[in-house]
């Protein structure tokens, strides 16, 4: 039974190893079988001379162990060194740190042959192995592909490998979890065979077959559950959402009144949104955009079309636009007024600072259907807020809201009409498509990554030690004299004894002196919401010329006159964050500049990507290459699956799996309708 609890007798081990496994959340046979190898050592072609080594990949080589010694280093680490000899008497060095048992283990094999596996370095006329794997049984030469497992709570890979053979008999209990038509379509091996081959491969083809089957299985399970829930949501909302046919001529009329033409990407997303509104079930669409590509105008055009076209079928609908901050809500409200007025559309602003008398009047208008558009913040999801006929919900920066807050607007509970509104969620954080499909499974995905032709590429420079800060500071002063403004970002609010990082307060004090008589102010997350809004309002009105801030400005308002972004300790931030910061000054027709200040001695290779591209999706892919997705995007509400074999970056496989599953659900729907 796969659910059999791991014991000393099953694994032929000690109580300590069982405890260590449990601490790694491995308590059953199934848990341990699910620990797939992270890579394989191919010993089917063992080298015997150092001259044949490929320094770009792992090598397995037969050598003579001439000597092995251990000694303490200056910083009290245990350094173990071995001298190795190939068949032509050439020498190499192997070194290990803090491997106390190794000298004792390998001492009996001095002047004997052993197998060494690892990548090598060639420097100072010497071949060197750093922490290589060793094998003393020469009987395993020439026929074995050895699985290499990740360390489990300090349990070494060799221990895990040695115990897998004891679990081989349990593999026969594994049941199939893919539909028969999928197995036939891709000629997949069975699930049992996949588990056997991934742990006990005879050749590289075994590994490829097993990994492809298991990767498909992992992604299939995630996406099947996701798509099933999406179809359930469609069924639950069918005939409960108002259908509004798209009027192409009226859309052209709206677009003609805009002060700028839409990009092709904006037009595509607008078309997708309007086509969704023709359906009888509630729209669930995520609009993902790169900074500066203009998403809000798409939502406004869709709102105007919905309000005016629904009136033709005697339906007076309401639209809600919810933003995470009051100043951003005010900005949307003020920016949208002119176009709303052109079409006779009424609107209200509901935010925390509105007086009680004003709030009561606004809520009464909302309840009685006397207002078309309501723009606001969290104030829209209070218990005393009711809507007459809420039909379209737009949530800006949707990741800044809790799921329950969004569900309040997206459900019928506070909607007197009993209708379920269409929902358009928007996010300014570029997420690789593969990850977005996985994390936001319940929504259809639209992407805007095309920039307006009139917008100039932002000039970005990594300011290294040799590149004088004084030159940047002189340039910024020159820009301030031309009535421009600057952001200055620091990692911390206050100076820390443990971490000697730049901080907003000390930076603020320096900038006050440096840029006098220009107005410098401070903004950070410890300030109250109203204080932050007041500072940003003053900054947007150019009453403040330089803003010393923490990452609180990562997603905030447009300040078209701000053209300079300076970031201290830039290596402390990930590229996706840096791109968001940079986006704060990439908002209008003026040339903008971003200066990254890494600390002395820190590598700037990763930061160079910021100089190469202004594309947030490219930078997001680079971030995803080097760290866990949950870290990249600060996904406080979204789960990121713990994949064992599959890769979230495999867009081709994920897309194919989703097509397979969608086809299955469509077939089921047709069978039910037949």
Give a written overview of the molecule.
The chain has 674 residues and is α/β, with parallel strands linked by helices. Among the domains are: 45-142, OB fold (Dihydrolipoamide Acetyltransferase, E2P) (Beta Barrel); 248-448, P-loop containing nucleotide triphosphate hydrolases (Rossmann fold), CATH 3.40.50; 459-613, 3-Layer(aba) Sandwich (Rossmann fold), CATH 3.40.50. 38% of the residues lie in helices and 18% in strands. It is built from 23 helices and 22 strands. The strands form 4 sheets. It has a 7-stranded mixed sheet with strand order 6-7-4-3-2-5-8. Strands 12-13-11-14-15-10-16 form a 7-stranded parallel sheet, sandwiched between helices. The longest helix is centred in the N-terminal third of the chain and has 34 residues, at 204-237. It is globular. The model is unreliable at 628-639 (pLDDT under 50).
Measured on Cα atoms, how large is the radius of gyration?
A: 31 Å
Strand order of the largest sheet: 6-7-4-3-2-5-8
CATH topology of the domain at 248-448: Rossmann fold
The span between the termini is 42 Å
Portion of residues in helices?
25-40%
List the helices and strands and how they pair.
Blueprint: H1 8-11, H2 15-23, H3 29-33, E1 39-42, E2 59-72, E3 78-85, E4 91-97, H4 102-106, E5 112-118, E6 120-123, E7 126-130, E8 133-135, E9 145-148, H5 157-164, H6 180-186, H7 191-199, H8 204-237, H9 248-256, H10 264-276, E10 284-289, H11 296-311, E11 318-322, H12 326-342, E12 347-350, H13 356-368, E13 373-376, E14 390-395, H14 403-410, E15 422-427, H15 433-439, E16 444-448, E17 459-462, H16 469-481, E18 485-489, H17 504-514, E19 520-523, H18 529-540, E20 546-549, E21 562-568, H19 575-583, E22 593-597, H20 608-612, H21 616-626, H22 629-633, H23 651-673
Helix pairs in contact: 7-8, 8-23, 10-11, 19-21
């Amino acid at each position: 039974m796969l659910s059999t609890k791991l014991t000393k007798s099953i694994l032929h081990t000690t109580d300590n190893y069982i405890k260590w496994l449990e601490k790694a959340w491995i308590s059953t046979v199934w848990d341990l079988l699910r620990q797939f190898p992270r890579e394989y050592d191919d010993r089917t072609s063992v080298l015997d001379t150092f001259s044949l080594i490929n320094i770009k990949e792992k090598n397995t080589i037969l050598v003579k162990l001439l000597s092995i010694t251990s000694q303490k280093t200056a910083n009290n680490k245990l350094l173990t060194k071995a001298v190795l000899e190939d068949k032509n008497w050439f020498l190499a060095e192997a070194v290990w740190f803090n491997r106390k048992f190794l000298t004792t283990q390998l001492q009996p094999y001095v002047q004997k042959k052993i197998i060494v596996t690892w990548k090598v370095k060639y420097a100072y006329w010497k071949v060197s192995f750093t922490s290589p794997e060793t094998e003393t049984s020469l009987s395993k030469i020439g026929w074995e592909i050895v699985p290499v497992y990740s360390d489990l709570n300090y349990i070494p890979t060799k221990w895990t490998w040695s115990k897998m053979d004891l679990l081989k008999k349990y593999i026969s209990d594994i049941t199939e979890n893919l539909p028969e038509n999928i197995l036939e379509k891709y000629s997949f091996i069975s699930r049992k065979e996949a588990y056997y081959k991934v742990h006990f491969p005879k050749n590289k083809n075994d590994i490829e077959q097993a990994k492809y089957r298991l990767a498909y299985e992992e992604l299939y399970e995630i996406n099947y559950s996701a798509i099933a829930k999406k179809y359930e949501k469609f069924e639950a909302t069918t005939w409960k959402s108002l259908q509004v046919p798209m009027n192409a001529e009226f859309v052209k009329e709206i677009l003609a009144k805009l002060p700028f033409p839409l990009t092709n990407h904006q037009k595509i997303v607008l078309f997708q949104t309007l086509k969704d509104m023709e359906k009888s079930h509630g729209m669930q669409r995520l609009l993902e955009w790169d900074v500066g590509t203009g998403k809000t105008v798409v939502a406004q055009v869709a709102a105007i079309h919905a309000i005016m076209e629904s009136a033709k079928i005697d339906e007076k609908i309401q639209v809600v636009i919810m933003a995470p901050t009051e100043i951003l809500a005010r900005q949307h409200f003020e920016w949208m007024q002119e176009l709303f007025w052109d079409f006779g559309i009424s609107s209200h602003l509901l935010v925390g600072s509105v007086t009680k008398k004003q709030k009561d009047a606004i809520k009464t208008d909302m309840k009685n259907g006397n207002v078309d558009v309501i723009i606001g913040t969290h104030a829209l999801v209070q218990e005393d807020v009711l809507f007459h006929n809420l039909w379209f919900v737009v949530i800006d920066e949707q990741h800044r809201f809790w799921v329950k807050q969004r569900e309040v607007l997206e459900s019928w509970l506070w909607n007197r009409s009993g209708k379920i509104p269409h929902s358009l969620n928007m996010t300014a954080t570029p997420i690789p498509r593969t990850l977005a499909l996985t994390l936001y499974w319940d929504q259809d995905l639209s992407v805007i990554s095309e920039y307006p032709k009139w917008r100039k590429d932002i000039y970005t420079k990594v300011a290294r030690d040799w590149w004088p800060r004084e030159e940047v500071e002189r340039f910024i002063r020159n820009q301030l004299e031309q009535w421009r403004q600057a952001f200055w970002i620091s990692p911390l609010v206050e100076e820390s004894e443990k971490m000697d990082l730049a901080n907003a307060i000390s930076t603020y004090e320096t900038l006050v002196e440096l840029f006098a008589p220009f107005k410098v102010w401070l903004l950070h997350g410890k300030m109250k919401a109203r204080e932050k809004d007041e500072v940003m309002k003053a900054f947007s009105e150019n009453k403040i010329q330089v803003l010393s801030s923490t990452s609180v400005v990562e997603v905030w308002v447009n300040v078209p006159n701000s053209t300079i972004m300076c970031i201290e300790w830039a290596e402390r931030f990930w590229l996706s964050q840096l791109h968001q910061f940079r986006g704060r000054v990439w908002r209008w027709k003026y040339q903008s500049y971003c200066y990254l200040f890494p600390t002395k001695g820190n590598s700037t290779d990763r930061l160079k990507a910021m100089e190469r591209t202004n594309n947030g999706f490219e930078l997001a892919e680079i971030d995803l290459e080097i760290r866990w997705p949950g870290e990249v995007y600060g996904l406080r509400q979204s789960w990121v699956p713990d994949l064992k074999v599959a890769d979230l970056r495999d867009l081709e496989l994920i897309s194919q799996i989703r097509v397979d599953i969608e086809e299955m659900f469509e077939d089921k729907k047709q069978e039910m309708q037949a």
